[in-house]
Each structure stands twice: as structure tokens, then as C-alpha cells.
Amino acid sequence: MSGPRPRFMSSLQHAAEEALSLSSSWSATLTVHTLNNERLSRPAVAEWLRCLSLACGNLKYLRASTALSQQTDTREVKVGVSGEKKVEHTFGDGKSATLVDDHSCDNTARGYFSVSAVVLKTNNESPWTDEFDKIELSCLIESISTTNPRIEWKKITNEGPSYVYFDGKISGDLENRAIIREPATLLITNATRLDTAKYRCEVTAAGDQKSFDEIVIDLVVRVKPVVPKCSVPKSVPFGKSAELSCVEHEGFPKSQYQWFKNREEIPDDPKTSLKFFNSTYTLSAEAGTLNFIAVRKEDSGEYFCRAKNDAGYAECPPQKMEVYDIDVVGIVLGVLVVAVVLLCITAGICCAYKRGYFSSQKQTGNNYKVPAKGDGVDYVRTEDEGDFRHKSSFVI
Q1: What does the radius of gyration of the chain's CA atoms come to, in whole angstroms?
Q2: 141 and 120 Cβ atoms separated by less than 8 Å
Q3: Pairing outcome for strands 319-324 and 235-237
Q4: Which helix (H) or strand (E) covers residue 346, if one does?
Q5: Domain for residue 28, yes or no?
Q6: Count of structural domains within the chain
Q7: pTM for the full model?
């Protein structure tokens, strides 16, 4: 009799490797089921076990246990497998592998393998919603044997994980704002911007061979932008540079910005529009700035900005910017007038100085100090202290 065909061996190897990868130890048990839940005769069961033993013996990393036990119910047979090294392998839906023996082993080894394990899946790993709307974080139990598994939800932030569902109760940030839809789906009824985070669904099934599984869901709560703060200069000289700015900090994801002139959107590249073809500017949708390198008369008008993201948009009121010409002739005449006035003032000062209006009279003779109070006697000091004579007033 020819040995099992590669297809049979491949299916068994996949199932055995899957059982080992799901098991926490180096051994596992496969449950071999018959197709259509049909009973097998004892000779058929014996032939089935022989085929399984032969297949396991030919595998590189797996070997069948020495005792292949036949159950009283011949709808299924327990097969023990062990691995010399642990092989990580995913096959099919992650919990079962189909066994089809195409005309080998007398057509008796027909069935499929299954592994007792808790397996989770989700309908959406990256859900999103707008602020104050509801959102469902799906956690579906695809496979489980334990009747009452332990279900937990955790919110993961930069500060670390925290419980939002534990011991059958909503807690933490989602208290009074969420419910559990059986068996493990989390429904947030009123999402806020602070709910943006990663959430982890954890299911523990003590009675399963693989007793634990988890799924991480990345939730984004979108926030509509508020009215942006816009800055538009009221007047700019012709040929000079000008900057228009627009910013808001509430929107999430971060807002992108558009500028409008007279209700018409300003393109990123002025060369793509006939109306803005001659304009010289740079526009940043991320920073919200509109920079004119050299304004022209045609750049005069009403400008406003729009901040937008996936949740919506908001606009600031229009503001008028005027571009005016610089009067070169007037400036030159003004400079000349000022120069003439300064020249006249200088000439007048020089003329007045020459005529002596700014000179001070000099005092002649010896300076002396007048006594503060007279005593009726005149004192005269001569060069010769010995030559003394009375004045006429003294004689009288």
C-alpha cells in the first residue's frame, strides 16, 4: 500500500503545527472529526489511526504520541502531538485545517482537525467617529470552548493601560458613556476627543487549550475645527511683500487651510489660474499662511480663510486688503521743501550772528564785591599802607 499523499501529510502538519503554536507548552492535542458526523467502523478507525501515525512519523518537526487512543464515540479520535521545536504557523482561519485524503489509506482518513482555543477577530481595527457620536469597537469571539470566559477592555495611552471594562462593569473614562454588546463588543454612546486612543479587548478562557487572546483597536474621534483667527493687512504699498495668516487649534485631525479672494479659492500655484497668473505668492495649506512676494494693484480685494479636516470646516469673516501706489513725485517735492526750509533757517541764524545779536557785552575795570550792608564809613586801600588820609565826608 502506498504511503499517504503529500496533501494528506501537509494538512496534518499544518494542523499539528497550529496546535503547537496555540498551546502554551511543547505538546498539544488534535481532535480529528469525521466528515458529516458519520460513525466509523472499528476497522476504519484502526486504518485511520494507522494513516495518522504514518503521517506524523514522516513529519520533520512532529511525531505522534506512542499511544493513539480510540474514543468510545467513533465520530472523533484524540491524537497527541509534540514538537522538537516550536513552529509558528497560521493556516486557514487560524483554528482548523482541512484534511482530505485523495484515494489514500483506503479512503478512510477523511475528516478535519480542530484545536480547542479562544480566537478573536474584529470587523474594524481602525474605526473613527465624529465627536459626540456613537462608535462600536467590535470584539468577536470566533472560537471558544469555555462557557463563561473573562472579558476585559483596556484603554492604552502614553500613561499606560487603564480599565474601561472590568468585572462586568464599565469603568474609568467610559463610565456612563458605554455598554457591552454580547459577547464582547464595546459600544461608546457619546464619544469625545479624549477617547482617541488604542483599546485592547482581552478574553481569557481557562478551559481552552489556548486560553487567552486579544485584539487591539485604534479609535480616532474627529473634532470639527472652530472659527480660525485670520490676520490680513489693511493696506500694502505697491511692490512690497505681505503676509496673511490663519490658525486654529481645536480641530482633530489637524486642520488644513484654504485661502479665498473675493469668494474664489486661491490655488496653490498661481500659474494654474488665469485670474492669479500674474500674482507672486506662496501658499502653505499646513501652516495657513499666504505670502505675497510683491503685491500688485490686482491683489486688492477681500480675503478670508477656511480651516477644514475630515470632521468639517470653519471660516473667518472676510477682510479687505488695499494695495496703494507710492507717490514718488510727492516724496521728492516734500524732501526739497524740507531742505529749503532748513537752508533758510541756517542762513537766518548766520546773519543774526554776524550782526551781533548773539554776542555778550564785556565788563571793564577791576571787579569788586559790593558790601552787602553799608556802615557809614568808606574804606580805601592804597598801595602804601602808611599813606593814610581822611576823605571829605569824614572831616565834615
Answers
A1: 50
A2: yes
A3: parallel
A4: helix 328-354
A5: yes
A6: 3
A7: 0.57
